[in-house]
Design a protein that fits this description.
Elements lengths: L1 E5 L6 E4 L12 E6 H4 E3 L5 E10 L12 H13 L16 E9 L8 E8 L10 E8 L5 E8 L5 E5 L2 E5 L4 E10 L12 E6 L4 H15 L4 E3 L4 E5 L4 H13 L1 E5 L4 E5 L4 E4 L4 E2 L2 E5 L2 E12 L10 E12 L3 E5 L5 H9 L5 H14 L2 E2 L1 E4 L1
Parallel strand pairs: 17-25
Antiparallel strand pairs: 1-21, 2-20, 3-16, 4-13, 5-6, 5-8, 6-7, 7-12, 8-9, 9-12, 10-11, 13-15, 14-15, 17-18, 19-24, 20-23, 21-22
Length: about 375
């Protein structure tokens, strides 16, 4: 007997009940937050760096050179630069070497001589980078210029072993880090001290927060100090002296404003079934019918026996019986909620899985009961 239980997402019928409407949530402030937590300074950012390098000293877990010819080419080129010339056609069987890509982030205002962490990842088919040593690797920016040099012992947060076809592994062995593994060779020019203005960029577009930032800055430093260009950028007049500009920006970032209520949004991960909603989500009274469909298939063997002396053959056939039944859908009334906790309690009353909640929330929004924006990722 084979039982197939299939939950119809489209069977979650959402019925809007026009019994009453909740009072809309006022667009008022919820908490005090500093400007440094809402906005960043335009031009003050990190810059990604990358480079191609060689890791040596592996315990027989390096690249298979027959399958990764670029590793062999890199070793030959490195040896030639060191004055070692191999005979033409030399077939090197290297097991302790691996080709890797090295990445790092160059912080804002970083100066030559400072160090940054680097991440090293295998480029070929090395089994593990554990215990490896990264040779000196130039790290370049988007403009092709070298901004740092990386070198050092790798730290790999994993372990593994294999024998006689059996293998065990903990965490990932093809990537690791080198704390303070790159030394900065040149700085990146910053527009921080150029001009008589600075631009603050909000982390997300919000006209209310931009207006409140302008009001707080002008109240502290005088009218005309700040001006909102749009819902995401605010231009601020700053002192010309670097010392005064740094002190001025420090005071600006420490100012607190009343953050506006965020846009009601529900984030749905269609792959994992995760559902996340923010505090502004509201639910109006509605009713939801939640049921399932069960398909039951039973197979019985039927033997066909020929008559005596008929020279026939015994034949076995299968006789199938298909039954379709649908469990009675339970109509559950969800009371309107103006807070996140109320919405969660109302949805938990359905007893549905996260995958079921995706369809239920979509149907609620279509019916006008869920007051939020749905975003599927």
């Amino acid at each position: 007997m084979i039982k197939i239980h299939s939950f119809f997402k489209s069977a979650f019928a959402t019925l809007a009940v026009a019994s009453s409407l909740l009072t809309a949530m006022p667009a008022q402030a919820t908490a005090q937050v500093r400007i440094r937590d809402l906005a960043s300074v335009q031009g003050v950012r990190s810059n990604p760096l990358y480079g191609y390098g060689i890791v040596v000293g592996l315990d027989g877990t390096g690249d298979q050179t027959t399958q990764t010819p670029f590793t062999t080419q890199s070793i030959i080129s490195m040896l030639q630069q060191s004055g070692v010339n191999l005979p033409p056609g030399t077939n090197m069987q290297l097991k302790n070497v691996a080709s890797v890509m090295v990445t790092a982030n160059l912080p804002a205002f970083a100066q030559p001589g400072q160090t940054v962490d680097v991440t090293v990842a295998s480029l070929g088919n090395a089994k593990s980078l554990r215990g490896g040593l990264l040779l000196m690797t130039p790290l370049k920016g988007a403009d092709g210029r070298v901004y740092a040099l990386a070198q050092g012992q790798l730290v790999v947060g994993g372990a593994g072993a294999s024998a006689s076809g059996s293998k065990t592994q903990i965490n990932h062995l093809s990537a690791g880090r080198i704390p303070n593994g790159a030394q900065i060779e040149q700085a990146v020019a910053s527009p921080f001290n150029l001009g008589d203005t600075l631009t603050l960029e909000l982390n997300s577009t919000d006209f209310s927060n931009a207006t409140r930032m302008v009001a707080a800055i002008n109240k502290t430093f005088g009218d005309g100090t700040a001006q909102a260009l749009d819902g995401r950028t605010v231009r601020v007049r700053a002192p010309q002296s670097p010392d005064d500009r740094v002190a001025f920006l420090s005071r600006v970032q420490d100012l607190s404003i009343s953050e506006s209520i965020a846009t009601a949004k529900v984030i749905i991960n269609a792959r994992t079934g995760s559902v996340v909603m923010n505090q502004a989500v509201a639910l109006e009274p509605c009713a939801v019918a939640h049921g399932n469909l069960t398909v039951k298939i039973s197979t019985t063997p039927v033997v066909s026996q020929p008559a005596p002396f008929s020279q026939g053959q015994t034949v076995v056939t299968q006789q199938s019986n298909v039954e379709v039944s649908q469990a009675g859908g339970q109509l559950i009334e969800l009371k309107g909620g103006a807070q996140l906790s109320d919405v969660v309690k109302a949805l938990n009353a359905l007893g549905a899985t996260p995958a079921d909640l995706i369809s239920i929330l979509e149907a609620m929004q279509q019916a006008g009961s869920l007051k939020a924006e749905l975003e599927v990722i």
